[in-house]
Amino acid sequence: MNYGTFMKAHIAALIASEQSVRLNRFTAELKRKITRNSHELIYFHRADDPYCQLMVQVIPELQKRFDVIIRPKVVERLPANMYPDPERYEAYSIIDTARLARLYGLGFPDAASVPDRLGVGMINRYLASKEEDPNFFSIAEELGEALWQQDVTVIRNHCAVADMVEDRLSDNEQLLSSLGHYASGTIYYGGEFYTGLDRLDHLEMRLNALGVGDGEIHYELTRLWRYGLKQLDRSIAGRGVDFYFSVRSPYSYLGLVQILNFAAETGIHLRLKPVLPMMMRGMLVPPKKSRYIFHDAAREARRENIPFGKVADPLGAATQLAMSIGFKAMEDGLGEAFFKAVMQAVWSEGIDASDLQNIKSILERSDLPLSLIDDRLSTKDWESRAEANLSEMFSVGSWGVPTIRVGTQTMWGQDRLWAIPDALKKAKSKTRFEEIRR
């Protein structure tokens, strides 16, 4: 490992460490006390973000449980370069929001579709004029419900007299950017962002640690999937689950570790589908997004007790080598062990996977045969297979990794493993129904 790689790995480990997080939070809290400010949270809302419709339903409860002030800020125009495939993302997010709403018992129509743009603009401007209204969240929930149910009459009756607030929207968007983020449906507090329901448990724990909460965690239902694995119908054993991932994606690494545990517990047939990372497909990941992803992956790893942080970026040769050997390992039934070993090495141990000697060491300590390397360095047949996986992933409605596919259902993110059991049951029921019809 060269000096530059060594230093970057150790700096990343320091940034991702719990000690660094504690120091940053201590500093934020000290500053708050010195300035005698309240515990103030900023929530960024956007009418056509379906996840926001869930957030406005739960934020009032957060305000009751925690001694905090939550200030809403309405945004509309978000950076286009943060979303590599906005159409697929928009379609998927609606489906995923309905799934998440069912889990938490919140309101969101199963038949929702992309909302009317005129209605979106009217609501955003009306809500921007109501940011100081103590009833903001109930108003936002009511208008959001009308928007997602295509109730144009309700929207027009409420929003036709909205004040012109273009400057306010623009100022809010600038604030979001200056604080270091790019997405709506997110809460900012003391130097950190908590995006959607999926990260509210991190916020709850932080506020509880400060002594301003009720000591409870209400938003961790997506993490409780492990407790139900023993009770699952054993007939799901052998059923196929596709896992699309990239060696360079930290979320893919976290997802792979967890879904391998899932497979070991349930006996599902996991089909690995490696794809090339975005930057090796000619797509750029803006620095602001990269920074958030790294910090978010680090706290998710700590929450799930997965080693993470000492990183040797596998962009380029390391990914190519891993893909080449990995496809061979999959043919020999060793793909799971190989990809877990190499991704753990680059994401938690700072091992340079572009070095063939390091790859040999990874194989040896993982009890994998060195013969996996034979004749793999000169072949590029893996490229067409990776491209086929990517095309397949696009065809099932996803744009990025990690993606999980069960039957006809697509799930994006390492934090969607909780949805697999229900998808397996539905796929099983559909198969039985088709058998009966035949």
Account of the protein in words:
Helix 3 runs antiparallel to helix 6 and helix 12 packs antiparallel against helix 13. The protein has 2 domains: about 180 residues, Glutaredoxin (3-Layer(aba) Sandwich); about 200 residues, Glutaredoxin, CATH 3.40.30. It is an alpha/beta fold and about 450 residues long. It is about 55% helix and about 10% strand. The C terminus is likely disordered. Helix 10 links the parallel strand 5 and strand 6. The radius of gyration is 23 Å and the shape is globular. The chain contains 16 helices and 8 strands. The strands form 2 sheets. Strands 2-1-3-4 form a 4-stranded mixed sheet.
Order of helices and strands: HHEHEHHHHHEEHEHEHHHHHEEH
Which overall shape is indicated by the principal axes computed on the Cα atoms?
globular
Radius of gyration: 23 Å
Number of domains: 2
Helix/strand/pairing class, anyone? Answer: alpha/beta
Distance between the termini: 61 Å
Q: Indicate the CATH architecture of the largest domain.
A: 3-Layer(aba) Sandwich
Uncertain runs: 432-438
Indicate the mean pLDDT: 93
The H-level CATH homologous superfamily of the largest domain, spelled out, is: Glutaredoxin
Tell me the helix content: 40-55%
The largest sheet, given as strand count, sense and whether it forms a barrel, is: 4 strands, mixed
CATH C-level class of the largest domain is Alpha Beta
The name of the CATH topology of the largest domain is Glutaredoxin
